[in-house]
Structures are given as C-alpha cells and as structure tokens.
Amino acid sequence: MTPTPFTEQEIQQLRAETRGTSQVTHFNNAGASLPTNVVVETMVNYLQEEATFGGYETELKYKTELDNTYDLIARLINADTDEVAIVENASAGWGLAFNGITFNKGDVIITCEMEYVSNLIGFLNVQKTYGVELKVIPNDEHGNFPLQALEAAISPQTKLIAVTQTASSAGGMIPVVAIGKIARKHNILYLVDACQSIGQIPVDVREIDCDMLAVTGRKYLRAPRGTGFLYVRKAVQDKLKLLLLDGFCTQWITESDFKMRDDARRFELHEKNRALTLGLSKAVEYALNLGVDRIWQRIQLLSASMRRKLAAIDGITVHDTGSQQCGIVTFSVAGIESTHVKTELATQHINVSVGLAKSTLIYMNKHSLNTIVRASVHYYNTDEEIEILCKALTTIAAE
C-alpha cells in the first residue's frame, strides 16, 4: 500500500518541533540530524533529575521507560526484544559483532565496494592477524551490486558476508534483502551495517535475514550523538565471543564460574548514559509514530528533486549511481575544493559535509575521487531549502 504523503501543514508542524530548522538549512543529516525538541528536553530533564536526586535513584525511577527502549527498537526493525543491545554507535556495535566471530587462516570474507572505513579496518586487521582472505564485489557499470558475482564468489571457505546498506559517501544502495537470501542459502554469517539506513529506510531484519545489524542513533534516526544499537539474531548470540565482560553480562557468578545472560544485552556493559538512552527511546518512538515508510517516501522525493536541480547547474557533477538511491546526494563543483564549497555554504547557514576518500575508500578510489560534497536530506527539509542550496551553489560554481 502506498504511504500517505506528508501534508504541508504536517511538515511545518514537524519543523516547529525541531528548533534547529529556524536557525539553519540543514543538509547534513547523514552526519547528524537535527534532533526533535522532545528528544532534547527528555535528556535535559533527566540530567536535571540526576543532579537533584542522584544517578542511581533517577535510573530506578525511569526503569520502565529505559527498558521500553529495547521494545521500541525491536518494533522499529522487526526483531525480538532479546535480540537488541544498546551501544554507543554503529562502529561499536559492528565491532562487537565482527570481532566476536572466530576467524581462522583461510577463512574468506566477502564485502562490497561501499564499505565504511571502520569496517575496512576490521577486515584488514583480521587479514593481517589470522590470514583471512578478503573478496570485494565491485558494483557494475550502472552502480548496482551484482548478485551473480556474489554467488560466484562463494566457496566452502566463505565465513562471512558483510555489507553496508547505504554508503557514507554515495547515494546508491546495496540490495541487502537479496544478499540475505544468498547468505541463508549457503548458511553463511551475514553482517549488515545500517548506520545510514535506520530512520530513513524501512529496515526489517527478518526480511533481510541478517545475523547481525549495526546502527547509530545520531543520523537519520534523529537520536543523540553517542547512541546506537546492535541486533544479533538469537540463534547466533552464543556463537560470538564477548570482547568485554562485567557483572551486567552475566546471569549468575560464583567464585569459580559464571554464566552469560541469555539475551543480546550480554554485549553491553552496565555503565552507560541513561539520559542518552531515553533520548534514543524518544527518537525511535517519534519515527515509529510518523511511519518510516512515509519518511522514506518523502526522502526519496526530496533527494530526487535535489539531484535534478544540482545536475542542471553548470559546473556541478552529481556522482550518485545505481537503480535505487537514498537521501544522500553527492556532488562536486568543477575547479573548487569540496572543503571550500562547504565553508562558503556555511557562511550562509547551509550545512553540508565533505566525504573524504578514506570514508568509503574502495568506492572513492575506483572513481578517482579525493573528496565529494555530501548534501543529505531528511523529511523535515523543504523544496524551498533545496532552492536556497542551489542558488548558493550557482554563485559558488560561477566564481
């Protein structure tokens, strides 16, 4: 069923509930979205209560709300609550999952050209340490991930398929559902980096059929910085080593033995910022109330409009390829460094970011790109803001 589009009145209400929209034109949602007022107020109020009544006492008061965060996340990604761990960010979650796998010499990891720098470092580390082989499946000439090439690359030595659904420095997307079918057919562990996906794209871990999925809060989910979560399929949890242990990870402990928890919270440590956890909870709840399918519909409309308008400006090259594209729009201005473009836009209170080669190294090297300008839209952005960006870029390109 086609989602119901946002009305103009709804968009204005959503902007009113996001105080930052009155101060900046924010196209850096792939870096960190503007949080809603309720997320900020929730965190501030919690911190004030901690300061007034004590940290442990305030945590006890809000125990139900804190625990409900896991339920909300589970609803968001169609998981069971005991398959969710709250972590600091996607890199932390991805690292806990990836480094929990036991690798041996001769094992093979298959990945895509869109992998993020942190993940690539992880691959190179086990390559150096254990003699693991890394196979990269490049996108085809149209920017699409070739599923037949993935199928052909699989061997009895393949230990893991690990892909990033939406790259840091490109607008194309990896077909994680189709890859999941291949991984399951061959009984291969499957790890998905959904750092840029959650909050803009409907993500269903049952449909993807992944074993592990890592997420950050600050990007399209509009949660605080320093928040994220990790999904680990129940059947896989006992197969992953734990990198850090404390009393929270255990069901029981004696002087001579201990037993781990029987849920994904075994991947957490006890001490974390409870105010941030509540902020994450409110952000997830906000997205669920709006409907991620509606969010995704609007983001696709806005990003397609932005690409068309940018491509019409002399001197600007839009770099995004692939049959399905997301809210991340990447481009360059002929003869002008991306950092200069970003700085000039910032003087007009327009926020974009610069994608560095190292962020998506394989993809950037393949296309001989050192840097790109990244303008990432969210549902609270408007056509008028896109016009403001394009007008400013027209002037910069003519310099």
From TrEMBL:
Gene3D superfamilies: Aspartate Aminotransferase, domain 1 (3.90.1150.10), Type I PLP-dependent aspartate aminotransferase-like (Major domain) (3.40.640.10). Keywords: Lyase, Pyridoxal phosphate. The keyword Lyase applies. Residues 27-389 form the Aminotransferase class V domain. PROSITE patterns: AA_TRANSFER_CLASS_5. The keyword Metal-binding does not apply. One of its GO terms (molecular function) is lyase activity. Its cofactor is pyridoxal 5'-phosphate. Belongs to the class-V pyridoxal-phosphate-dependent aminotransferase family. This is Selenocysteine lyase/Cysteine desulfurase.
